[in-house]
Write a structure and sequence with these properties.
Belongs to the WD repeat coronin family. This is Coronin. Pfam families: DUF1899 (PF08953), WD40 (PF00400). The protein is an all-beta fold. The chain has one domain (about 20-130). The protein has strands at about 25, 40, 45-50, 55-65, 70, 75-80, 85-90, 95-100, 105-110, 125, 135-140, 145-150. The strands form four sheets. The protein has a four-stranded antiparallel beta sheet with strand order 2-3-4-6, with no helix packed on it. A four-stranded antiparallel beta sheet has the order 7-8-9-10, with no helix packed on it. A hairpin with a 7-residue loop joins strand 11 and strand 12 (about 145-150). The radius of gyration is 19 Å and the shape is globular.
């Protein structure tokens, strides 16, 4: 007695639809570095992505309203001397983002309201002194003035 087996799943009859080209981000050089972290971070104003860069680490911050093809010369946030490993927006201020890097530092950046028009190279705060690379930056939701860093190596 053979019986056909059909897996019972609530997703069995769900079908996706691709987004239109004018609602997508195109031609962004996402980092090829394989690491156990987020390559992007999003808040109600911006989307940030770690990108390939020569001479250190960089990430790109785009306003959510800027979609379509992103020019290769679009300004980036570039202050780390090693590859950027993680980025995270502040939950209390949409213009603040933290980045961690292989250069043993964490940097806190302030993004202008309209987004970047020039490359951003000077962080608001630079936290140095770690003995190993900083792999992860986590947000602290209870205290608005505190950014918590976790070191996994």
């Amino acid at each position: 007695m053979s019986r056909s087996f059909v897996r019972n799943s609530k997703f069995r009859h769900v079908f996706g639809q691709a987004a239109k080209a004018d609602q997508c981000y195109d031609d962004i050089r996402i980092s090829q570095m394989t690491w156990d972290s987020n390559f992007c971070s999003v808040n109600p104003k911006f989307v940030a992505m770690i990108v390939d860069a020569s001479g250190g680490g960089a990430f790109m911050v785009l306003p959510l309203t800027k979609t379509g093809r992103i020019d290769m010369s679009y300004p980036t946030v570039c202050g780390h001397t090693g590859p950027v490993l993680d980025i995270e927006f502040c939950p209390h201020n949409d213009n603040i983002i933290a980045s961690s890097s292989e250069d043993c530092s964490v940097m806190i950046w302030e993004i202008p309201d309209g987004g970047l028009t020039l490359p951003l190279t000077d962080p608001v705060v630079k936290l140095e002194g770690h003995s190993k690379r900083v792999d992860k930056v986590e947000k602290q939701t209870e205290i608005s003035q505190l950014e918590t860093m976790a070191l996994f190596h």
